[in-house]
Amino acid sequence: MSWARLAAIIRKELIQVRRDRLTLALVVGIPVVELLMFGYALNAVTDHIATVVYDESGTASSREFARAFENSTYFSLVRWVSSRDEAMRAIDSGEAKVALVIPPDFGDRTIAGRLTSAQLIVDGSDPSVAQTALFSGGLVAQAQSGVVTLETLARAGAGAPRGGIELRPVVLYNPRMVSVMFMVPGLIGIILQMQAVLLTALAVVRERERGTLEQLIVSPVRPAELMLGKVLPNVVLCLVSTGLTLLVARVLFGIVPRGSLLDLYVLTLPFLFGSLGIGLAISVVARNQAQALQMTMFTLLPSILLSGFLYAREGMPAIFQAIGLFIPMTYYLQVLRGVIVKGVGLEVLWPQFAALSLFAVLVMTVSLVRFRKTIE
């Protein structure tokens, strides 16, 4: 073995790595991003659960009871609603995971030292959040019940009725809190995004590697026509794939969408165009299929970790929650779990549809501009 020849080969490889700045950035950047997200963003302990309050009593004792939930740090009161229907709409849309309903006689019964009750309505589509809400809600109610009992005894003496507060929980959508009802819809979204991004990213890069992209460039085909010609067939393929995954979910896991399939497909379209636009953007930057694969995995990582696919977003630091708002998967997961698990449709999920549509328009526009500049 010649050490001189070996050193020359090593030096040549290092020069190639240094010149391939995109691959070098991915190799260095992906571990750093993974460490940051796994170390800071993922939190198995769920707290600050989004909660709405419907206070029919409107008394000081009812407001104190509601504030006790927020002071526990397990609940975050996003707003007070004026009706039970409004509270249910907040849960249906994903704005809140919990609704605390306080009856009109809550204050009078508390002052009189009589046993009173409140209702805790919990979104069961995420079992881990639901279990935390049920357990911590019970502890808060128990602690507040003790406070009310002591106040009654101090006010009326030892012979006064003990009273107290009873919390009555109701779990919606997934009463048994089965984990597959949470995971399978999320997996459908992750699989769909990975498939859509890879289809367009590899298709264009493969054309470049084979030299056929140059033939298309010198033809009368315009950049926008070429881009749409790459995107539209893949939209059809991804819609067919969506139907197949729903069929598999029904056969293997017994998960039947409770909402309209038409609504699901309509809400899926902007997500597909956005994902395919990401693939086009990758294809403009990537020089070969290996780079395209690396960049696809890089874009998939935040979608898995910051969208609420694995862990509730409420438990993440504020900065990562803010970053998650710019990830389409955050909204598409709400769509999937809303239609499949909750049975709601476009009339409730239109904010998610608007966000996905805006992202699709932006990413397709940027991809078209970059694609035109690249081929010209």
Would you kindly provide a written description of the structure presented here, covering whatever features stand out?
With 376 residues, the protein is an alpha/beta fold. It folds into 2 domains: 49-172, abc type-2 transporter like domain (abc type-2 transporter like fold); 179-375, no CATH class. Helices cover 69% and strands 10% of the residues. The chain is built from 14 helices and 5 strands. The chain has helices spanning 3-19, 21-41, 60-71, 84-92, 106-111, 127-156, 180-210, 212-218, 223-253, 261-285, 289-305, 318-324, 328-342, 346-375, and strands at 49-55, 75-80, 98-102, 115-123, 164-172. The protein has a 5-stranded mixed sheet, with helices on both faces. Strand 1, helix 3 and strand 2 form a beta-alpha-beta unit. Helix 2 (21-41) packs parallel to helix 11, helix 10 packs antiparallel against helix 13 (328-342) and helix 10 (261-285) runs parallel beside helix 14 (346-375). The chain is elongated, with a radius of gyration of 27 Å. The protein starts with a helix and ends with a helix. The model has no long low-confidence stretch (mean pLDDT 83).
